[in-house]
Protein backbone atom coordinates (compact mmCIF):
# COMPACT_ATOMS: atom_id res chain seq x y z
CA UNK A 1 0.00 0.00 0.00
CA UNK A 2 1.25 3.47 -0.91
CA UNK A 3 2.25 5.49 2.13
CA UNK A 4 0.41 8.85 2.50
CA UNK A 5 2.49 11.94 3.07
CA UNK A 6 2.00 13.92 6.28
CA UNK A 7 1.93 17.73 6.27
CA UNK A 8 2.33 19.87 9.39
CA UNK A 9 -0.22 22.61 10.02
CA UNK A 10 -0.48 25.28 12.72
CA UNK A 11 -4.25 25.16 12.95
CA UNK A 12 -7.30 23.72 11.20
CA UNK A 13 -11.01 24.56 11.06
CA UNK A 14 -13.49 21.74 10.44
CA UNK A 15 -17.23 22.22 10.03
CA UNK A 16 -19.52 19.21 10.45
CA UNK A 17 -22.92 19.83 8.90
CA UNK A 18 -26.10 17.88 8.21
CA UNK A 19 -29.74 17.52 9.20
CA UNK A 20 -30.55 18.22 12.84
CA UNK A 21 -31.05 14.45 13.26
CA UNK A 22 -27.69 13.49 11.73
CA UNK A 23 -25.74 13.80 14.98
CA UNK A 24 -23.47 16.66 13.93
CA UNK A 25 -23.24 18.08 17.46
CA UNK A 26 -22.04 14.73 18.84
CA UNK A 27 -19.63 14.27 15.92
CA UNK A 28 -18.11 17.71 16.44
CA UNK A 29 -17.94 17.26 20.20
CA UNK A 30 -16.12 13.91 19.91
CA UNK A 31 -13.62 15.38 17.43
CA UNK A 32 -12.97 18.49 19.54
CA UNK A 33 -12.69 16.53 22.81
CA UNK A 34 -10.27 14.11 21.17
CA UNK A 35 -8.18 17.03 19.91
CA UNK A 36 -8.20 18.61 23.37
CA UNK A 37 -7.02 15.36 24.95
CA UNK A 38 -4.20 15.26 22.41
CA UNK A 39 -3.08 18.66 23.69
CA UNK A 40 -4.38 20.97 20.98
CA UNK A 41 -5.87 24.34 21.68
CA UNK A 42 -9.53 24.25 20.63
CA UNK A 43 -12.48 26.57 20.22
CA UNK A 44 -15.89 25.34 19.07
CA UNK A 45 -19.09 26.82 17.70
CA UNK A 46 -22.26 24.70 17.67
CA UNK A 47 -24.65 26.26 15.14
CA UNK A 48 -28.15 24.93 15.77
CA UNK A 49 -31.08 25.35 13.36
CA UNK A 50 -33.62 27.94 14.47
CA UNK A 51 -36.58 25.61 13.89
CA UNK A 52 -37.29 22.79 16.33
CA UNK A 53 -37.89 20.26 13.56
CA UNK A 54 -37.57 21.70 10.09
CA UNK A 55 -38.36 19.36 7.15
CA UNK A 56 -35.52 16.90 6.56
CA UNK A 57 -33.17 17.84 3.78
CA UNK A 58 -34.02 21.55 3.81
CA UNK A 59 -31.74 24.52 4.42
CA UNK A 60 -33.80 25.46 7.51
CA UNK A 61 -32.99 22.11 9.12
CA UNK A 62 -29.21 22.27 8.70
CA UNK A 63 -27.27 21.82 11.96
CA UNK A 64 -23.57 22.60 12.17
CA UNK A 65 -20.64 22.24 14.54
CA UNK A 66 -17.39 24.08 13.83
CA UNK A 67 -14.16 23.25 15.63
CA UNK A 68 -10.91 25.19 15.42
CA UNK A 69 -7.90 23.25 16.75
CA UNK A 70 -4.26 24.19 16.67
CA UNK A 71 -0.76 24.10 18.07
CA UNK A 72 -1.50 27.14 20.26
CA UNK A 73 -4.43 28.46 22.26
CA UNK A 74 -7.36 29.18 19.96
CA UNK A 75 -9.43 32.24 20.86
CA UNK A 76 -12.29 31.68 18.40
CA UNK A 77 -13.75 28.89 16.24
CA UNK A 78 -12.41 30.37 13.02
CA UNK A 79 -14.00 32.28 10.17
CA UNK A 80 -13.83 29.84 7.25
CA UNK A 81 -13.28 26.09 7.22
CA UNK A 82 -10.42 24.01 5.85
CA UNK A 83 -12.66 20.94 5.82
CA UNK A 84 -16.43 20.80 5.37
CA UNK A 85 -18.23 17.55 6.13
CA UNK A 86 -21.69 17.76 4.54
CA UNK A 87 -24.14 14.91 5.01
CA UNK A 88 -26.60 16.13 2.36
CA UNK A 89 -26.99 18.75 -0.42
CA UNK A 90 -28.73 21.22 1.92
CA UNK A 91 -25.75 21.18 4.28
CA UNK A 92 -23.42 21.70 1.32
CA UNK A 93 -25.46 24.63 0.00
CA UNK A 94 -25.85 26.29 3.42
CA UNK A 95 -22.11 26.16 4.10
CA UNK A 96 -20.64 26.85 0.67
CA UNK A 97 -19.94 30.44 1.73
CA UNK A 98 -17.75 29.29 4.64
CA UNK A 99 -15.18 27.40 2.54
CA UNK A 100 -11.57 28.56 2.49
CA UNK A 101 -9.77 28.64 -0.83
CA UNK A 102 -8.65 25.09 -1.64
CA UNK A 103 -10.71 23.55 1.18
CA UNK A 104 -11.57 19.85 1.36
CA UNK A 105 -15.26 19.00 1.00
CA UNK A 106 -16.49 15.58 2.13
CA UNK A 107 -20.04 14.90 0.91
CA UNK A 108 -22.17 11.79 1.38
CA UNK A 109 -22.64 10.62 -2.21
CA UNK A 110 -25.75 8.65 -1.25
CA UNK A 111 -27.51 11.93 -0.49
CA UNK A 112 -27.24 13.16 -4.09
CA UNK A 113 -30.74 12.04 -4.97
CA UNK A 114 -33.38 13.94 -6.91
CA UNK A 115 -35.45 14.34 -3.72
CA UNK A 116 -32.59 15.76 -1.63
CA UNK A 117 -31.42 18.08 -4.40
CA UNK A 118 -34.94 19.44 -4.86
CA UNK A 119 -35.51 19.92 -1.11
CA UNK A 120 -32.25 21.87 -0.85
CA UNK A 121 -33.53 24.34 -3.44
CA UNK A 122 -31.02 23.73 -6.22
CA UNK A 123 -32.00 25.01 -9.66
CA UNK A 124 -30.28 22.16 -11.53
CA UNK A 125 -29.77 18.45 -10.98
CA UNK A 126 -26.01 18.91 -10.49
CA UNK A 127 -25.41 20.71 -7.16
CA UNK A 128 -21.63 20.29 -7.38
CA UNK A 129 -21.47 22.15 -10.65
CA UNK A 130 -24.06 24.71 -9.57
CA UNK A 131 -21.99 25.59 -6.47
CA UNK A 132 -18.80 25.83 -8.58
CA UNK A 133 -16.78 23.40 -6.47
CA UNK A 134 -14.11 22.69 -9.10
CA UNK A 135 -11.45 24.62 -7.19
CA UNK A 136 -11.92 22.53 -4.05
CA UNK A 137 -10.71 19.09 -3.05
CA UNK A 138 -14.04 17.29 -3.36
CA UNK A 139 -14.40 13.77 -1.91
CA UNK A 140 -17.78 12.06 -2.36
CA UNK A 141 -17.82 8.67 -0.63
CA UNK A 142 -21.13 6.82 -0.36
CA UNK A 143 -21.12 7.21 3.41
CA UNK A 144 -24.58 5.77 4.05
CA UNK A 145 -23.97 2.65 1.89
CA UNK A 146 -20.50 2.10 3.35
CA UNK A 147 -21.93 2.36 6.87
CA UNK A 148 -24.57 -0.26 6.01
CA UNK A 149 -21.87 -2.57 4.67
CA UNK A 150 -19.72 -2.16 7.79
CA UNK A 151 -22.60 -2.95 10.13
CA UNK A 152 -24.41 -5.63 8.12
CA UNK A 153 -23.55 -8.47 10.53
CA UNK A 154 -24.91 -6.77 13.69
CA UNK A 155 -28.58 -7.51 12.98
CA UNK A 156 -29.70 -3.90 13.38
CA UNK A 157 -32.62 -2.34 11.52
CA UNK A 158 -31.90 0.06 8.67
CA UNK A 159 -32.92 3.18 10.59
CA UNK A 160 -30.50 2.42 13.42
CA UNK A 161 -27.69 1.60 11.00
CA UNK A 162 -28.14 4.87 9.07
CA UNK A 163 -27.92 6.81 12.33
CA UNK A 164 -24.31 5.65 12.61
CA UNK A 165 -23.20 7.36 9.38
CA UNK A 166 -21.98 10.39 11.34
CA UNK A 167 -19.43 8.13 13.04
CA UNK A 168 -18.19 6.98 9.62
CA UNK A 169 -17.58 10.64 8.73
CA UNK A 170 -15.83 11.09 12.08
CA UNK A 171 -13.54 8.15 11.28
CA UNK A 172 -12.52 9.81 8.01
CA UNK A 173 -11.57 12.98 9.89
CA UNK A 174 -9.72 10.99 12.54
CA UNK A 175 -7.50 9.50 9.84
CA UNK A 176 -7.11 12.79 7.98
CA UNK A 177 -5.73 14.57 11.07
CA UNK A 178 -4.05 11.65 12.87
CA UNK A 179 -6.54 11.63 15.71
CA UNK A 180 -6.74 8.69 18.13
CA UNK A 181 -9.97 6.67 18.15
CA UNK A 182 -9.67 5.66 21.81
CA UNK A 183 -11.50 8.58 23.42
CA UNK A 184 -14.50 8.34 21.10
CA UNK A 185 -14.63 4.58 21.62
CA UNK A 186 -14.54 4.98 25.40
CA UNK A 187 -17.28 7.62 25.26
CA UNK A 188 -19.53 5.37 23.14
CA UNK A 189 -18.86 2.45 25.46
CA UNK A 190 -19.93 4.45 28.52
CA UNK A 191 -22.95 5.95 26.78
CA UNK A 192 -24.45 2.81 25.26
CA UNK A 193 -22.84 -0.33 26.67
CA UNK A 194 -25.20 -0.82 29.63
CA UNK A 195 -28.46 -0.04 27.82
CA UNK A 196 -27.59 -1.36 24.38
CA UNK A 197 -24.08 -2.71 23.83
CA UNK A 198 -24.84 -3.47 20.16
CA UNK A 199 -25.35 0.27 19.52
CA UNK A 200 -21.99 1.00 21.13
CA UNK A 201 -20.35 -1.63 18.95
CA UNK A 202 -22.08 -0.30 15.81
CA UNK A 203 -20.82 3.23 16.34
CA UNK A 204 -17.28 2.05 17.05
CA UNK A 205 -17.30 -0.12 13.92
CA UNK A 206 -18.54 2.85 11.88
CA UNK A 207 -15.62 4.98 13.11
CA UNK A 208 -13.16 2.22 12.18
CA UNK A 209 -14.78 1.77 8.77
CA UNK A 210 -14.48 5.50 8.03
CA UNK A 211 -10.87 5.51 9.21
CA UNK A 212 -10.02 2.50 7.02
CA UNK A 213 -11.81 4.00 4.03
CA UNK A 214 -9.72 7.17 4.24
CA UNK A 215 -6.52 5.20 4.79
CA UNK A 216 -6.99 2.73 1.94
CA UNK A 217 -8.76 4.53 -0.91
CA UNK A 218 -6.21 7.33 -1.47
CA UNK A 219 -8.97 9.89 -1.86
CA UNK A 220 -6.88 12.39 0.09
CA UNK A 221 -3.53 13.75 -1.05
CA UNK A 222 -2.05 13.59 2.44
CA UNK A 223 -2.68 13.43 6.16
CA UNK A 224 -2.17 16.46 8.36
CA UNK A 225 -0.43 16.80 11.71
CA UNK A 226 -1.25 19.53 14.21
CA UNK A 227 1.15 19.53 17.16
CA UNK A 228 0.03 19.96 20.76
CA UNK A 229 -0.23 23.47 22.14
CA UNK A 230 2.16 24.68 24.87
CA UNK A 231 -0.32 24.94 27.74
CA UNK A 232 0.33 25.94 31.32
CA UNK A 233 0.81 22.94 33.58
CA UNK A 234 -2.31 21.72 35.30
CA UNK A 235 -5.35 19.50 34.98
CA UNK A 236 -7.52 20.38 31.98
CA UNK A 237 -10.95 19.47 30.73
CA UNK A 238 -13.12 20.71 27.90
CA UNK A 239 -15.90 22.94 29.15
CA UNK A 240 -18.68 25.00 27.59
CA UNK A 241 -19.86 28.36 28.88
CA UNK A 242 -23.10 27.18 30.47
CA UNK A 243 -21.41 24.42 32.49
CA UNK A 244 -18.60 26.80 33.49
CA UNK A 245 -21.21 29.32 34.66
CA UNK A 246 -22.96 26.70 36.80
CA UNK A 247 -19.69 25.61 38.38
CA UNK A 248 -18.62 29.21 39.02
CA UNK A 249 -21.87 29.79 40.90
CA UNK A 250 -21.23 26.65 42.98
CA UNK A 251 -17.72 27.93 43.76
CA UNK A 252 -19.12 31.28 44.91
CA UNK A 253 -21.56 29.53 47.24
CA UNK A 254 -18.73 27.43 48.67
CA UNK A 255 -16.52 30.45 49.29
CA UNK A 256 -19.40 32.31 50.93
CA UNK A 257 -20.28 29.34 53.14
CA UNK A 258 -23.91 29.53 52.02
CA UNK A 259 -26.24 27.09 50.24
CA UNK A 260 -26.92 27.79 46.57
CA UNK A 261 -30.52 28.12 45.36
CA UNK A 262 -31.52 28.42 41.71
CA UNK A 263 -35.10 29.23 40.74
CA UNK A 264 -35.47 29.27 36.95
CA UNK A 265 -37.68 28.57 33.99
CA UNK A 266 -36.17 26.67 31.03
CA UNK A 267 -35.29 28.91 28.06
CA UNK A 268 -32.87 28.55 25.14
CA UNK A 269 -29.90 28.97 25.36
CA UNK A 270 -29.69 29.15 29.19
CA UNK A 271 -31.42 25.91 30.21
CA UNK A 272 -28.20 23.90 30.59
CA UNK A 273 -27.19 26.04 33.60
CA UNK A 274 -30.33 24.97 35.48
CA UNK A 275 -29.79 21.34 34.39
CA UNK A 276 -26.16 21.38 35.53
CA UNK A 277 -27.02 22.90 38.91
CA UNK A 278 -29.77 20.30 39.39
CA UNK A 279 -27.03 17.62 39.28
CA UNK A 280 -25.21 19.17 42.25
CA UNK A 281 -27.32 17.99 45.17
CA UNK A 282 -24.06 16.55 46.50
CA UNK A 283 -22.91 20.15 46.99
CA UNK A 284 -26.14 21.19 48.70
CA UNK A 285 -27.52 22.97 45.63
CA UNK A 286 -31.30 23.41 45.58
CA UNK A 287 -33.04 23.96 42.24
CA UNK A 288 -36.65 24.75 41.37
CA UNK A 289 -37.95 24.56 37.82
CA UNK A 290 -40.62 27.20 38.18
CA UNK A 291 -43.86 27.49 36.18
CA UNK A 292 -42.72 30.72 34.52
CA UNK A 293 -39.96 33.33 34.48
CA UNK A 294 -41.60 35.54 37.10
CA UNK A 295 -41.96 32.67 39.54
CA UNK A 296 -38.33 31.71 38.95
CA UNK A 297 -36.93 35.08 40.00
CA UNK A 298 -39.41 35.49 42.86
CA UNK A 299 -38.46 32.15 44.39
CA UNK A 300 -34.82 33.24 44.15
CA UNK A 301 -35.55 36.53 45.92
CA UNK A 302 -37.33 34.60 48.68
CA UNK A 303 -34.35 32.27 48.95
CA UNK A 304 -32.00 35.27 49.26
CA UNK A 305 -34.13 36.66 52.09
CA UNK A 306 -33.91 33.26 53.80
CA UNK A 307 -30.09 33.26 53.67
CA UNK A 308 -29.21 31.46 50.44
CA UNK A 309 -26.92 32.52 47.64
CA UNK A 310 -29.76 32.97 45.17
CA UNK A 311 -29.55 32.64 41.40
CA UNK A 312 -31.96 32.77 38.49
CA UNK A 313 -31.13 32.09 34.82
CA UNK A 314 -32.76 33.23 31.60
CA UNK A 315 -32.39 34.76 28.15
CA UNK A 316 -33.68 38.04 26.70
CA UNK A 317 -37.45 37.42 26.75
CA UNK A 318 -37.21 36.07 30.29
CA UNK A 319 -35.21 39.09 31.42
CA UNK A 320 -38.13 41.25 30.24
CA UNK A 321 -40.55 39.23 32.36
CA UNK A 322 -38.30 39.36 35.42
CA UNK A 323 -37.90 43.16 35.37
CA UNK A 324 -40.53 43.99 38.00
CA UNK A 325 -39.15 41.42 40.43
CA UNK A 326 -35.62 42.75 39.84
CA UNK A 327 -36.87 46.13 41.03
CA UNK A 328 -38.03 44.38 44.20
CA UNK A 329 -34.56 42.87 44.66
CA UNK A 330 -33.01 46.34 44.28
CA UNK A 331 -35.49 47.90 46.73
CA UNK A 332 -35.02 45.18 49.36
CA UNK A 333 -31.24 45.24 48.77
CA UNK A 334 -30.93 41.48 48.70
CA UNK A 335 -28.11 39.67 46.89
CA UNK A 336 -29.19 37.90 43.73
CA UNK A 337 -27.39 36.81 40.55
CA UNK A 338 -29.34 36.79 37.31
CA UNK A 339 -27.57 35.03 34.43
CA UNK A 340 -28.78 36.25 31.04
CA UNK A 341 -27.55 34.11 28.12
CA UNK A 342 -28.30 36.49 25.28
CA UNK A 343 -29.87 35.47 21.97
CA UNK A 344 -31.21 37.29 18.93
CA UNK A 345 -34.33 39.35 19.57
CA UNK A 346 -36.77 40.96 19.96
CA UNK A 347 -39.57 38.70 21.21
CA UNK A 348 -38.86 35.04 20.42
CA UNK A 349 -36.39 36.26 17.81
CA UNK A 350 -33.58 33.82 17.02
CA UNK A 351 -33.53 31.40 19.98
CA UNK A 352 -30.56 29.32 18.80
CA UNK A 353 -28.46 32.21 17.49
CA UNK A 354 -26.14 34.61 19.28
CA UNK A 355 -26.42 38.35 19.82
CA UNK A 356 -25.41 40.98 22.39
CA UNK A 357 -29.01 42.08 22.47
CA UNK A 358 -29.77 42.75 26.12
CA UNK A 359 -27.25 45.30 27.37
CA UNK A 360 -29.70 48.22 27.48
CA UNK A 361 -32.27 46.01 29.15
CA UNK A 362 -29.71 44.94 31.77
CA UNK A 363 -28.69 48.53 32.45
CA UNK A 364 -32.05 50.30 32.30
CA UNK A 365 -34.89 47.80 31.96
CA UNK A 366 -36.70 48.51 35.24
CA UNK A 367 -39.02 51.20 36.54
CA UNK A 368 -37.71 54.05 38.67
CA UNK A 369 -34.10 54.73 39.52
CA UNK A 370 -32.98 51.13 39.74
CA UNK A 371 -29.23 50.60 39.22
CA UNK A 372 -27.74 47.12 39.19
CA UNK A 373 -24.26 45.69 38.83
CA UNK A 374 -23.70 44.28 35.32
CA UNK A 375 -20.84 41.90 34.48
CA UNK A 376 -20.12 40.10 31.17
CA UNK A 377 -18.12 36.95 30.41
CA UNK A 378 -15.83 36.76 27.35
CA UNK A 379 -15.17 33.08 26.65
CA UNK A 380 -16.58 29.65 27.55
CA UNK A 381 -13.96 29.01 30.22
CA UNK A 382 -14.00 32.45 31.84
CA UNK A 383 -17.74 32.09 32.44
CA UNK A 384 -16.54 30.30 35.59
CA UNK A 385 -14.57 33.32 36.79
CA UNK A 386 -17.26 35.89 36.05
CA UNK A 387 -20.00 33.75 37.57
CA UNK A 388 -17.87 33.66 40.71
CA UNK A 389 -17.34 37.42 40.45
CA UNK A 390 -21.07 38.06 40.02
CA UNK A 391 -21.72 36.08 43.19
CA UNK A 392 -18.99 37.91 45.10
CA UNK A 393 -20.25 41.33 44.09
CA UNK A 394 -23.90 40.49 44.78
CA UNK A 395 -23.28 39.09 48.24
CA UNK A 396 -20.59 41.49 49.47
CA UNK A 397 -22.40 44.59 48.18
CA UNK A 398 -25.95 43.39 48.96
CA UNK A 399 -27.46 44.13 45.58
CA UNK A 400 -28.65 42.11 42.58
CA UNK A 401 -26.11 41.51 39.83
CA UNK A 402 -26.65 40.58 36.18
CA UNK A 403 -24.14 38.30 34.48
CA UNK A 404 -24.33 38.57 30.68
CA UNK A 405 -23.29 35.59 28.59
CA UNK A 406 -24.44 34.81 25.05
CA UNK A 407 -25.35 31.83 22.89
CA UNK A 408 -21.92 31.74 21.26
CA UNK A 409 -19.85 31.31 24.41
CA UNK A 410 -22.58 29.43 26.29
CA UNK A 411 -22.62 26.59 23.76
CA UNK A 412 -19.02 26.89 22.60
CA UNK A 413 -16.26 24.99 24.37
CA UNK A 414 -12.52 25.20 24.97
CA UNK A 415 -9.87 23.63 27.22
CA UNK A 416 -10.16 24.85 30.79
CA UNK A 417 -7.43 24.57 33.37
CA UNK A 418 -9.26 23.49 36.52
CA UNK A 419 -8.40 26.08 39.18
CA UNK A 420 -7.48 25.42 42.78
CA UNK A 421 -10.19 26.79 45.02
CA UNK A 422 -7.48 27.88 47.46
CA UNK A 423 -6.55 30.51 44.87
CA UNK A 424 -10.01 32.06 45.01
CA UNK A 425 -10.81 34.56 47.77
CA UNK A 426 -13.31 34.03 50.53
CA UNK A 427 -16.61 35.83 49.93
CA UNK A 428 -17.65 37.78 53.00
CA UNK A 429 -21.30 38.87 52.96
CA UNK A 430 -22.29 41.35 55.72
CA UNK A 431 -24.32 38.74 57.63
CA UNK A 432 -25.76 40.14 60.86
CA UNK A 433 -25.97 38.16 64.10
CA UNK A 434 -28.13 39.09 67.10
CA UNK A 435 -26.47 41.20 69.78
CA UNK A 436 -27.56 42.57 73.11
CA UNK A 437 -26.57 46.08 72.09
CA UNK A 438 -29.60 48.17 71.13
CA UNK A 439 -32.28 47.70 68.49
CA UNK A 440 -31.37 46.23 65.09
CA UNK A 441 -31.31 48.88 62.36
CA UNK A 442 -31.52 47.02 59.02
CA UNK A 443 -30.33 49.89 56.80
CA UNK A 444 -27.19 50.88 58.68
CA UNK A 445 -24.41 50.50 56.12
CA UNK A 446 -20.77 49.44 56.03
CA UNK A 447 -17.86 50.95 54.07
CA UNK A 448 -19.23 49.44 50.84
CA UNK A 449 -22.63 51.07 51.56
CA UNK A 450 -24.05 47.55 51.92
CA UNK A 451 -26.75 47.02 54.52
CA UNK A 452 -26.63 44.06 56.88
CA UNK A 453 -28.01 40.69 55.76
CA UNK A 454 -30.30 39.54 58.57
CA UNK A 455 -31.67 36.01 58.16
CA UNK A 456 -35.25 35.39 59.37
CA UNK A 457 -35.95 33.42 62.51
CA UNK A 458 -33.31 35.11 64.63
CA UNK A 459 -34.60 36.94 67.67
CA UNK A 460 -33.81 40.63 67.65
CA UNK A 461 -33.31 40.85 63.90
CA UNK A 462 -36.96 41.32 62.95
CA UNK A 463 -37.40 43.94 60.21
CA UNK A 464 -39.73 45.06 57.42
CA UNK A 465 -39.19 43.74 53.91
CA UNK A 466 -41.00 44.45 50.65
CA UNK A 467 -41.30 46.79 47.70
CA UNK A 468 -42.30 49.99 49.46
CA UNK A 469 -39.62 52.59 50.12
CA UNK A 470 -37.79 52.16 53.42
CA UNK A 471 -36.55 54.53 56.07
CA UNK A 472 -32.83 55.04 55.55
CA UNK A 473 -31.95 53.59 58.95
CA UNK A 474 -34.89 51.80 60.56
CA UNK A 475 -36.17 50.06 57.45
CA UNK A 476 -39.77 50.92 58.25
CA UNK A 477 -42.05 52.03 55.41
CA UNK A 478 -41.44 55.69 54.52
CA UNK A 479 -43.23 58.10 52.18
CA UNK A 480 -41.05 61.05 53.16
CA UNK A 481 -39.84 62.77 49.95
CA UNK A 482 -36.40 63.62 51.32
CA UNK A 483 -35.90 60.07 52.60
CA UNK A 484 -36.78 58.72 49.14
CA UNK A 485 -34.24 61.05 47.52
CA UNK A 486 -31.63 59.91 50.04
CA UNK A 487 -32.32 56.22 49.37
CA UNK A 488 -32.25 56.71 45.59
CA UNK A 489 -28.88 58.46 45.93
CA UNK A 490 -27.56 55.80 48.29
CA UNK A 491 -28.52 52.83 46.10
CA UNK A 492 -26.85 54.51 43.11
CA UNK A 493 -23.75 55.36 45.13
CA UNK A 494 -23.51 51.76 46.35
CA UNK A 495 -23.33 50.47 42.77
CA UNK A 496 -20.84 53.19 41.74
CA UNK A 497 -18.65 52.29 44.70
CA UNK A 498 -18.24 48.76 43.32
CA UNK A 499 -15.62 50.30 40.98
CA UNK A 500 -13.28 50.42 43.99
CA UNK A 501 -13.54 46.63 44.37
CA UNK A 502 -12.98 45.45 40.77
CA UNK A 503 -9.78 45.44 38.66
CA UNK A 504 -8.71 48.65 36.93
CA UNK A 505 -9.41 48.62 33.19
CA UNK A 506 -6.50 47.42 31.06
CA UNK A 507 -5.57 47.79 27.40
CA UNK A 508 -4.33 44.89 25.26
CA UNK A 509 -1.41 46.06 23.16
CA UNK A 510 0.32 49.42 23.29
CA UNK A 511 -1.11 52.05 25.68
CA UNK A 512 -1.42 54.57 22.82
CA UNK A 513 -1.83 54.48 19.07
CA UNK A 514 -3.95 55.20 16.00
CA UNK A 515 -6.94 52.95 16.70
CA UNK A 516 -8.45 51.59 19.89
CA UNK A 517 -10.82 48.67 19.36
CA UNK A 518 -13.45 48.51 22.10
CA UNK A 519 -15.60 45.47 22.81
CA UNK A 520 -17.37 43.70 25.62
CA UNK A 521 -18.44 40.17 26.50
CA UNK A 522 -18.22 37.26 24.10
CA UNK A 523 -16.61 39.11 21.18
CA UNK A 524 -13.15 39.13 22.75
CA UNK A 525 -11.61 36.20 20.86
CA UNK A 526 -12.43 37.56 17.41
CA UNK A 527 -11.44 41.12 18.30
CA UNK A 528 -8.12 40.06 19.82
CA UNK A 529 -7.20 37.91 16.82
CA UNK A 530 -8.00 40.76 14.42
CA UNK A 531 -5.93 43.19 16.50
CA UNK A 532 -3.04 40.68 16.71
CA UNK A 533 -2.95 40.29 12.93
CA UNK A 534 -2.91 44.04 12.33
CA UNK A 535 -0.21 44.57 14.96
CA UNK A 536 1.97 41.98 13.19
CA UNK A 537 1.58 44.13 10.07
CA UNK A 538 2.95 47.11 12.00
CA UNK A 539 -0.39 48.86 12.59
CA UNK A 540 -0.81 50.86 15.82
CA UNK A 541 -3.95 49.11 17.02
CA UNK A 542 -4.87 48.06 20.57
CA UNK A 543 -7.88 46.46 22.26
CA UNK A 544 -9.84 47.64 25.30
CA UNK A 545 -12.26 44.87 26.21
CA UNK A 546 -14.81 45.19 29.01
CA UNK A 547 -16.08 42.58 31.45
CA UNK A 548 -17.30 44.98 34.13
CA UNK A 549 -20.08 47.08 32.58
CA UNK A 550 -21.81 48.80 35.48
CA UNK A 551 -20.00 50.37 37.08
CA UNK A 552 -17.24 50.80 34.52
CA UNK A 553 -13.78 50.22 36.00
CA UNK A 554 -11.37 53.01 36.89
CA UNK A 555 -8.92 54.04 34.17
CA UNK A 556 -11.19 54.07 31.12
CA UNK A 557 -10.92 57.79 30.43
CA UNK A 558 -7.13 57.69 30.57
CA UNK A 559 -7.02 54.79 28.08
CA UNK A 560 -9.44 56.41 25.61
CA UNK A 561 -7.57 59.72 25.66
CA UNK A 562 -4.40 58.17 24.19
CA UNK A 563 -5.83 56.99 20.86
CA UNK A 564 -6.56 58.91 17.68
CA UNK A 565 -9.73 56.96 16.90
CA UNK A 566 -12.04 54.62 18.87
CA UNK A 567 -14.28 51.96 17.31
CA UNK A 568 -16.84 50.06 19.37
CA UNK A 569 -17.64 46.58 18.00
CA UNK A 570 -20.71 44.69 19.19
CA UNK A 571 -23.34 42.21 18.03
CA UNK A 572 -26.20 44.71 18.27
CA UNK A 573 -26.93 48.13 16.82
CA UNK A 574 -24.72 50.12 19.21
CA UNK A 575 -25.92 49.63 22.79
CA UNK A 576 -22.48 49.76 24.43
CA UNK A 577 -21.39 52.64 22.18
CA UNK A 578 -24.40 54.68 23.34
CA UNK A 579 -23.63 53.78 26.97
CA UNK A 580 -20.05 55.02 26.54
CA UNK A 581 -21.35 58.23 24.99
CA UNK A 582 -23.37 58.86 28.12
CA UNK A 583 -20.44 58.07 30.43
CA UNK A 584 -17.58 59.69 28.48
CA UNK A 585 -19.07 62.37 26.27
CA UNK A 586 -15.74 63.96 25.38
CA UNK A 587 -14.78 61.15 22.96
CA UNK A 588 -15.99 60.33 19.46
CA UNK A 589 -16.98 56.71 18.93
CA UNK A 590 -17.04 54.90 15.58
CA UNK A 591 -19.25 51.81 15.49
CA UNK A 592 -19.11 48.39 13.87
CA UNK A 593 -22.33 46.49 14.43
CA UNK A 594 -23.72 43.13 13.33
CA UNK A 595 -27.14 41.53 13.91
CA UNK A 596 -27.01 38.33 11.85
CA UNK A 597 -27.22 35.80 14.69
CA UNK A 598 -23.57 34.93 14.02
CA UNK A 599 -20.28 36.00 15.65
CA UNK A 600 -17.96 38.46 13.96
CA UNK A 601 -15.47 37.13 11.45
CA UNK A 602 -11.86 38.24 11.68
CA UNK A 603 -11.93 39.11 7.97
CA UNK A 604 -14.75 41.64 8.34
CA UNK A 605 -13.21 43.13 11.48
CA UNK A 606 -9.85 43.66 9.77
CA UNK A 607 -11.54 45.27 6.78
CA UNK A 608 -13.32 47.74 9.06
CA UNK A 609 -10.19 48.53 11.08
CA UNK A 610 -8.08 49.06 7.97
CA UNK A 611 -10.62 51.56 6.65
CA UNK A 612 -10.45 53.50 9.91
CA UNK A 613 -6.66 53.53 9.84
CA UNK A 614 -6.49 55.24 6.43
Question: Roughly what percent helix?
Answer: 25-40%
- Report the total helices: 21
Structural class, by secondary structure, is: alpha/beta
Physical arrangement of strands within the biggest beta sheet: 11-10-12-13-15-14-19
Query: How much β-strand is present in the residues?
Result: 15-25%
The span between the termini is 56 Å
Structural shape: globular
Unreliable sequence segments: none
The overall pLDDT, averaged over residues, is: 95
Largest sheet: 7 strands, mixed
Query: How many E-type strands?
Result: 21
| Rg | 27 Å
Can you describe this structure?
The protein has 614 residues and is of the alpha/beta class. It is built from 21 helices and 21 strands. The strands form 5 sheets. It has a 7-stranded mixed sheet, sandwiched between helices. Helix 10 packs across helix 11 and helix 12 runs parallel beside helix 13.
Compose a concise summary of this entry.
The protein has 21 helices and 21 strands. It is of the alpha/beta class and 614 residues long.
Main features:
20% strand, 614 residues, six-stranded mixed β-sheet, seven-stranded mixed β-sheet, alpha/beta, globular
SSE topology sketch:
Layout: E1 5-8, E2 11-19, H1 24-37, E3 41-47, E4 62-70, E5 81-86, H2 89-95, E6 99-107, H3 114-119, H4 127-130, E7 137-139, H5 143-150, H6 158-162, H7 165-176, H8 182-192, H9 197-217, E8 222-225, E9 236-240, H10 241-256, E10 260-264, H11 271-278, E11 286-289, H12 293-305, E12 309-314, H13 316-332, E13 336-342, H14 359-364, E14 373-376, H15 383-397, E15 400-406, H16 407-411, E16 413-417, H17 481-497, E17 513-520, H18 524-536, E18 541-546, E19 548-550, H19 556-560, E20 563-570, H20 575-583, E21 590-593, H21 602-613
Parallel strand pairs: 1-8, 2-5, 5-6, 6-7, 10-11, 10-12, 12-13, 13-15, 14-15, 17-18, 17-20, 20-21
Antiparallel strand pairs: 2-4, 3-4, 9-16, 14-19
Amino acid sequence: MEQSSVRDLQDVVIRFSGDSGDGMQLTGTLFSDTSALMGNGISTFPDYPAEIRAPQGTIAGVSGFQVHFGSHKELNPGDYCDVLVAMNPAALKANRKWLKEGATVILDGDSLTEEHIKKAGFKTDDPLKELKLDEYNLVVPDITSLTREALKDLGLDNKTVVKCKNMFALGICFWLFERLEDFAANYLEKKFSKKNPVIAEANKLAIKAGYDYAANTHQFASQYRVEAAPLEKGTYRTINGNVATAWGLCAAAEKAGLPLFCGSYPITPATVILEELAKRKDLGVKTVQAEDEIAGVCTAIGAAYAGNFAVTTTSGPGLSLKSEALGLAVMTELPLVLVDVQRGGPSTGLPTKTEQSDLQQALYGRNGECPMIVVAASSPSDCFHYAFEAGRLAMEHMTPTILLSDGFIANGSEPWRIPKMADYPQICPPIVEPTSEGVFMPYVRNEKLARGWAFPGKKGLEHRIGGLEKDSVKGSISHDPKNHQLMVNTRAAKVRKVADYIPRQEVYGDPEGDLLVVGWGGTRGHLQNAVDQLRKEGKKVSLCHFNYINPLPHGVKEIFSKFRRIVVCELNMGQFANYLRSEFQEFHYEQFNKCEGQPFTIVELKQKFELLLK
